Amino acid sequence: MSKEYSADKLDVKAFAVAGGHLAGRDTLLRYKRLADLAQGLHPDLHVDWQADGQVRAVHGMQGQVWLSLQVHADLPMTCQRCLQAMDVPLQVERQFRFVADEATAEALDSDSEEDLLVLSREFNLRGLIEDELLMALPVVPRHDTCPAPVQMASSDDDFEQANVEKTNPFAALAALQPAPSKPRKP
User: Fold this and answer.
1) Quick one: 119 exposed, middle or buried, by C-beta within 10 A (0-12, 13-18, 19+)?
2) Mean pLDDT, rounded, for 98-113
3) Does the pLDDT at position 185 exceed 50?
4) Alpha carbon distances (Å) from 36 to 28, 40, 164
5) Which residue has the higher pLDDT, 171 or 2?
């Protein structure tokens, strides 16, 4: 009989020892912090994810608990170039190694190439999924190529006046070229 695991309260060690697999398709509305950033949010937006647990040896140490996480979501945002709606694809593929406590994680963090998390019997996998998606967000969402040309305009007359062609203030220096020097006589 296989054990049922919960993504909201996951016993990580038991999940890894069993070689557990969890997958889900959640509505984006379930991830509040992510949903707060979305533009034009609707219930048909989903977060697809899967997690696999395993125990493996690392650096000669046996019995290390690992979690592999893959997540995909599309988040509706506003392009910061053309200010039109766009779907930002978010993709996460991460491996996490679990350690006994915060002190161990802190001590190993600087020397470890992998991401370290603390073992828990009530680990919030969905919280980790949301954190990873938030970190995958672009700093400035924008289309690779905007669907419409971006028109640069201003309603400020002072701004328009400042951009009118003006004479270069250094143009007068061009007229001050030194006279050619005469060759010296030996």
Assistant:
1) middle
2) 84
3) yes
4) 10, 10, 42
5) 171
Q: What's the first-to-final CA gap in the chain, in angstroms?
A: 108
Q: What pLDDT, in 10s, does the model give residues 49-84?
A: 999 999 987 666 678 999 999 999 999 999 999 999
Pairwise CA distance, residues 179 & 47, whole Å:
74
pTM: 0.76
Question: What tokens were used for 128?
Answer: 């980790």
Residues 6+ positions from 106 with CB-CB distance below 8 Å: none
Q: For residue 185, give the H/E element and its range.
A: none
138-161: burial string, b at 16+ Cβ within 10 Å, e else: eeebbeeeeeeeeeeeeeeeeeee
E strands, the chain, where? Answer: 21-27, 46-58, 61-78, 85-99, 115-118
More confident residue, 159 or 20: 20
